[in-house]
From TrEMBL:
Source organism of the structure: Candidatus Nomurabacteria bacterium RIFOXYC2_FULL_36_19
Annotated keywords: Membrane, Transmembrane, Transmembrane helix
Domain of life from the UniProt record: Bacteria
Name of the protein: Type II secretion system protein
TM spans (from-to): 12-36
Length: 221
């Protein structure tokens, strides 16, 4: 007698195959979503890092030039800045302030003019200046290497990226001891720079607060 083979042919049914493929597709889609999300977060962090590096560069630029400069003249609410003040004799007179938004100074290689500005003496317009606030419809930090230019032709260059908005009320300069020793002020010039604002990138608002202090490297003149 022959024994009957009771073993049945085994394999996947159509339903089992469809379920397996569906689970595989779900896993792949979840993995792709996680990968795309991680890539988006990486790009965002890289962009934020670039913006923060730009802010650090701005702070370093102000600190380095102020440290080696002299004749700080600070403008605040008591001595408000007006573009008509650019390239005028007043820029050559050192002045402290408690919460300024424009700071003018002689660059390390700059010289005070022999005669009042405006004139043919190029030293009358070689002051550098930093402005924290609004200019030409934009908020940010601006720099000039010509004493702010003139009222007709301003000379302000924006240092901060467009993604950065500056809180002009909380930000500013505090300048102590800027006056010359001949006025009785024997304190070495000292500047505190405060920058408060927000970085707006792809509908994400990230607040920041930076502060640094600078002391004039040379002897007070």
């Amino acid at each position: 007698m022959h024994k009957r083979n009771n073993k049945k042919n085994t394999g996947f049914t159509i339903i089992e195959t469809m379920i397996s493929v569906s689970i595989f597709i779900i896993i792949i889609m979840a993995g792709m979503g996680a990968l795309l999300n991680a890539n988006a977060l990486h790009q965002k962090s890289q962009s934020m890092r670039s913006i923060l590096d730009s802010m650090s560069f701005t702070m370093e630029d102000m600190s380095r030039n102020l440290r080696t400069g002299y004749h700080y003249r600070c403008y605040d609410g008591i001595f408000p800045w007006n573009q008509d003040y650019a390239q005028t004799p007043a820029l050559n007179t050192p002045q402290s302030c408690a919460n300024g938004w424009v700071l003018v100074f002689e660059e390390a290689n700059g010289e005070t003019p022999l005669t009042p500005a405006p004139n043919t003496d190029s030293n009358a317009t070689d002051q550098w200046a930093y402005l924290i606030g609004s200019y030409n419809g934009k908020d940010g930090i601006f720099k000039s290497t010509k004493g702010g230019g003139t009222s007709e032709v301003p000379d302000w260059i924006k240092l901060t990226p467009d993604e950065v908005t500056i809180d002009v009320v909380a930000s500013g300069f505090t300048v102590l001891g800027a006056e010359a020793p001949s006025t009785g002020d024997l304190q070495q010039p000292f500047v505190v720079i405060r920058l408060v604002g927000n970085i707006v990138y792809k509908d994400t608002n990230t607040p920041f607060s930076l502060q640094t202090s600078v002391s004039q490297r040379g002897i007070d003149r």
